[in-house]
Amino acid sequence: MTNPYLQKRSLRLSGHQTSVALEQEFWKILEQIALQKQQSLTSFITHVDTHRPPDRPLSSALRLEALKSTSILTK
Predict the structure, then answer these.
(1) Is the pTM of the predicted complex or chain greater than 0.70?
(2) What is the residue-wise DSSP string for 14-36?
(3) What is the Cα–Cα distance from 58 to 20, expressed in whole angstroms?
(4) What pLDDT, in 10s, does the model give residues 27-67?
(5) How far apart are CA 70 and CA 57, in angstroms?
(6) I need a surface site. Which of 6, 24, 54, 60 has the fewest CB within 10 A?
């Protein structure tokens, strides 16, 4: 069953094709972060992917990055 709240995007990260499903709100925040860092969204996601703990799913790591950027996790 498909989750209507998640938007799945296909990406090539470090030479491997993968897909990530996130809520549209998280995609918007991640796009803003990448823009602020003057990176493509794929470059930013690749950075998150290579620096996340091995046991943390990429989608979870991306959500945490989005929350960090909104200062929710820095308080």
Answers:
(1) yes
(2) TTEEEEEEEEHHHHHHHHHHHHH
(3) 8
(4) 999 999 999 999 999 999 999 999 999 999 999 999 999 99
(5) 21
(6) 54
Tokens of 24: 């549209």
pLDDT band at 4 (very low <50, low <70, confident <90, very high): confident
Q: Which two tokens stand for residue 67?
A: 């929350």
Query: If we measure between CA atoms, which residue out of 70, 57, 59 comes closest to residue 29?
Result: 70
In Å, how far are 59, 62, 70 from 73, measured between CA atoms? 17, 13, 8
Provide the residue ranges of all domains of the chain, joining segments of one domain with +. Answer: 25-74
Q: What does the alpha-carbon distance between residue 27 and residue 33 come to, in Å, rounded to a whole number?
A: 10
pLDDT for position 19: 96
Distance in angstroms (rounded) separating the CA atoms of residues 58 and 32: 18
